[in-house]
Amino acid sequence: MNELIGRVFSFETKVFPNESALYNQLASHGQSPKALMISCADSRIVPEHIMQAQPGDLFVCRNAGNIVPPHASQLGGVTATVEYAVMVLGVRDIIVCGHSDCGAMKALATDADLTAMPNVAAWLRHSHAAQKVCRESYPADLSDMEKLRNMALENVVVQLTHLRTHPSVASGIARGEIALHGWYVDIHAGQVLGLDGDTGHFVPLREGQPLPVAQPHVRRLAADVAYAQAAE
Questions:
Q1: What distance, in Å, lies between the first and last C-alpha atoms of the chain?
Q2: pTM
Q3: Residue 151 to residues 78, 156, 176, Cα–Cα distance (Å)
Q4: Mean pLDDT computed over 81-109
């Protein structure tokens, strides 16, 4: 803890003086983050570090397993964060970011006994769909590492599905104002994979190549009809 406190002092004396103009601008004019990232609380995954983001660039929500409960199933921080980011901050891109060696996903992949942690067990029920996909749709003879990786990837897909149940997100997607992204960070390789909504596969993010997007900024209305404007 003393080491961390020492870094606070370093921020005050070394970091802040060099970035005081940026902080003063943010304090005076408020924030306009470019994206909302929902990532795992794992200490090895730091969204701002991965994206090399400056203060004000990212609106971040972190929790065990980068989970997004379906709307109305559980009121809490994730639901409120999503609603605020979309309706107040006007965020147009939402990223759900999983990662390798995730403890939450490992518990699901191994059917760990969570009796002593009832709150964790209840929270991870929001990932049971991913667990069932992995159990019934993948080969049974995969290695533990492969099973864990598949669980983390399928969990990102499930949480993106949950995101679409949030009214503010659903409305933004219908108007073509919100895009959804599914990412997976491979800690060992230092690589980020993105979900391609067209193929359903995760592919590496590569400079100079199109960004894989789960749900692009495309207007989508179920009734594909041009309605006439009412006469004045």
A1: 68
A2: 0.91
A3: 21, 9, 30
A4: 97
